[in-house]
Amino acid sequence: MEFIDVLLKRRSTRKFNDNPITKDELDKILKAGLLAPSSMNRKPISFLVVERQETLAELAQAKDHGAELLRDADKAIVVIADTMISDTWCEDSSIALTYLHLAATDLGIGSCWVQIHMRKKDGVYAEKVVRDIIKIDEHYRIAGIMALGHSDDIPQAHTMDDIDKGKIHFLV
């Protein structure tokens, strides 16, 4: 598949079937995340792979809205960033999450980025909720979680007609 085709096909999937992700598929997705660039190549990002259904169910309740899909995912990748290594943790995490998303798309695997940063659960920041579930120190920040699973419900690919060229401006 050409790169532009991966970009067009990349859609958020919120419904997953029971077909498990293979070790090889997971390995390819994680390698893509590890290839993501980071500011000054500091590499503050780590990936916590969640496979236990009980933990996925807990994470599904980590914020008020939009995390429920984690309950039915086959796996999830919590992207954590060490703020003792870099202050560009949010940007670096976002790039890594994007690489995970695109790699899953390339493999025909459903995926959805579950935003954690700046979201809340009953007035408590979702980052704290997730940090408590996965038991990591406070100097780690969490921009998001990538839900993964095979799906029969991947939305239709975008087309080149969907591109809004009005968003492009040339400075002269």
Brief rundown of the structure:
This protein is of the alpha+beta class and 172 residues long. The chain has helices at 3-9, 23-34, 53-59, 89-106, 126-134, and strands at 45-50, 75-82, 110-115, 120-121, 124-125, 140-149.
Q: Return residue spans where pLDDT drops below 50 for at least 5 consecutive residues.
A: none
Radius of gyration: 16 Å
- The topology string of helices and strands comes to HHEHEHEEEHE
Task: Tell me, rounded to a whole number, the average pLDDT.
Answer: 97
The tally of strands reads 6
> Quaternary state, please?
single chain
Structural class of the helices, strands and pairings?
Answer: alpha+beta
Tell me the fraction of residues in β-strands, as a range.
15-25%
Largest sheet composition: 4 strands, antiparallel
Terminal CA distance: 36 Å
Q: Judging from the principal axes of the Cα atoms, what is the shape?
A: globular
Describe the structure.
- The chain is 31% helix and 20% strand.
- It has 172 residues and is an alpha+beta fold.
- The strands form two sheets. A four-stranded antiparallel β-sheet has the order 1-2-6-3, sandwiched between helices.
- A hairpin with a 2-residue loop joins strand 4 and strand 5.
- The longest helix is centred in the middle third of the chain and has 18 residues.
- The model has no long low-confidence stretch (mean pLDDT 97).
